[in-house]
Amino acid sequence: MGNFLEAPYLLEAVVVVLGLALLMLEAFLPKADKRLVAYIALFGLAGVLVASFNMKAPENLEHSFWSFYATDNLAFFYKNIAVLATMLVIVMAIEYTPVLEKYVSQGSKQGGLGEFFCLPVFVCAGLMWMASAKEFITIFVSLETVTISFYVLVAYMRRNVGSLEAGVKYLILGALSTGFFVYGVTWVFGLTGETHLEKIGIALQGLEGSDSAVLFAFTLILVGLGFKVAAVPFHVWVPDVYQGAPTPVTAFLSVGSKAAGFIVATRILQPFLEMERLHSSFTTILVIVTGATILFGNFAAIPQTNFKRLLAYSSISHAGFLLLALTCTPDQFQLTPGQVVAFYLATYLLMTMLCFLVLTIVRRSTESDEIAAFSGLHRRSPFLAFALLIGVISLAGVPLTAGFLGKFFVFTLAIDSGRWILLAFAVVGAASGFYYYLKVARAMYWEEPTELAAIEISPLARLALLLLIIATIVFGVYPAPILGLLTN
What we know:
By secondary structure, the chain is mainly alpha-helical. It has 21 helices and no strands. The chain has helices at residues 2-5, 10-28, 35-52, 73-95, 97-103, 114-132, 136-154, 161-192, 197-205, 211-229, 238-244, 247-273, 279-301, 307-326, 337-366, 377-380, 382-396, 402-417, 420-446, 459-477, 480-487.
């Protein structure tokens, strides 16, 4: 056991083995309740999560074969986010089973459902590898592991036109973004002869007369990463894919894919931003993308009547706030941009998963994703209405919630770095967020319900909702546990 805890790279191997075991179980137990696969996945991932908190990185890991594998605080923090997000997605998938049976099963009651509980485990393995990847080849392989799994999950409801349309759009634009990313990596390798990010940083400092080539490579890589994090103008896939994909998959895309994209962006952009002679050029590009992302995401969310599309544009706006942190060079603020991004993503995980879990339960009952489906929800299920209220006010940034502290750290970082124009954009975006988030609360508490039948909540879903509510409130008042994971 001691040797295992000193080999953090085995965490990903355990997750992959768990995924393969689940596939075998699903294949050889055709008549069993497919939800058994999900419960085993939850149990296995819980063990991985516990082990990750007790891992110790060997001191000589940087000088061994595993030199491409990062074991810093950020890496372990993002691994924990990946595992937690996957567990919550599997809980949603269990609640979403009746909808999946309608659009997937043919002939048998739960035919074709088992893989839907297995694939998130492989996505989790890719996300965990990405958290520790600091070499372009490893980044690309882990990125594609995640993306290919999402290709299947997005289009999983094969008898639903919206899901198939979302799958096609995600496949085409995903392949295009991968091409940009790989082409950018090729340029970097051609300029430096390296794929390791630390060695690339050293090589870039010594380059002479290649400024235009470096800028071109940076732009290509930014296009590829912009697709993954849903930054403007690379966001065009987000609304339709979020609306058409199964709700648990939408939640996974919103949290897991975004977290992976930003840990990769944090590591990849650092060597470029450390080039003093091109620092202003790189920053200008990031500032333009950041400003456009904040304004577009928030303004486009205002007229939405479909809750999933609203959360899609909300996801774009939050990507803008995260990019704002990456453009900053703090002078006195104690947290680094990377740590602020990680804290923001941790809070984003809590409040977004809370909203999507409520949406999953309501979708199963009403067969609608429209905001109108939440009308009078407090009369049908006071607990669900309260849970969603906590989720949306946290997304809006109401004080005493985790979402408020995430935005507070970003704004403080922007002030410390003198990003006044972007800060003004962020204030306008945050203010508009209050309108479109709270109109969901208005529908729940001020509008009359279309029906009065109570909504059933399983014990597992109720427990997950309760834990998310508590975490959203507690970390909004006492963020020390999250900050401790980032700094110690």
